[in-house]
Amino acid sequence: MKSYNFKEVFELADTYTGTSGISTFAGKLWKTKVVQFGEALRRFDQSCSVYNDLVGTGAVSLVVPYTTSHKAVDYSTDTQGAGTAVERAHTALDNMTGVTLTVGTTDFKAGDVTVTKAGEMSSMVNLVGQARYVVAQALAQDVDTAIATALQSTSITNVVYGGDATGVDSLATGDKLTSSLVADAMEMIEANNFIPDQLYIGTKQLRELRKDSQFTNAAEYGSDRVVLKGEVGEYLGVKVIVTTNAPTYASGATDLNEAATLWGAAGHACVMTGTTKDGQKASGALAWKEMPSIAYEFEKRKNLHHIFYDQCFKCGIIQPGATTLIKVTDD
Length: 331
Fold this sequence. Notes:
alpha+beta; phage-related protein like fold; 14 strands; globular
């Protein structure tokens, strides 16, 4: 009986796998490197002030203080020259409040990806390593989408629409992103005395900017300015960041920012965020209670590899006036 070497067996399998009697010889050689799924472009953490104050404490609430208005200081005119002494005016510091970020039981997120011992030992692919990758991607995705959701709070009233729409329900095909809309969004933030800083858009909106001569590609800056994660260019002085986590809506979907209002056509809510004059991020806040972590354990009784997912956080809005939503259609 003829003996076959390894290469010949695989050639036999490739050529005759459908032939009766020898189909069981169809060997499969797996590459050990996994070609990963195209994960979302996660960028929104750059729009927030991040706080770790709750980590390692028994506290469940963090108050982020902010000022509510400009405060004029009262004064008295010095009249001593006229022979009369006047006590100076006293101004109460009463233009401060705070947004409270409270962690609840549902904010503690715990997951577990399992791989059997037999499955791991019988695979050419490192299944435990792949499980770690899955958990890491899930940790990042959950935070990014939570921030994107928070930045569509009903407290945000700075909103502009594509075309001649006056609400998401009147958006129609062709109401796409334009330079005029970006300028209008900037003006709304500036009217509240904040500085427009970042614009988060989807890939459909990037397509429109690429067609506009005012758009400056990040590769053409010609300076040593730090380029943010996902930054593709600059538009009217605002850093443009593309992300596939930009809020997307199907036609007929309910808008998060405008309760009970349905989108008239498929599109995106592009988010422009601002800073204070001294550079503080003023739009959103992310408070960590438990930092993201990945842990491993082998359960001998069940012959299971466990890869654990753990994190706890809360998102919120600090200054609603520092954010503008640009609601446009994709086509």
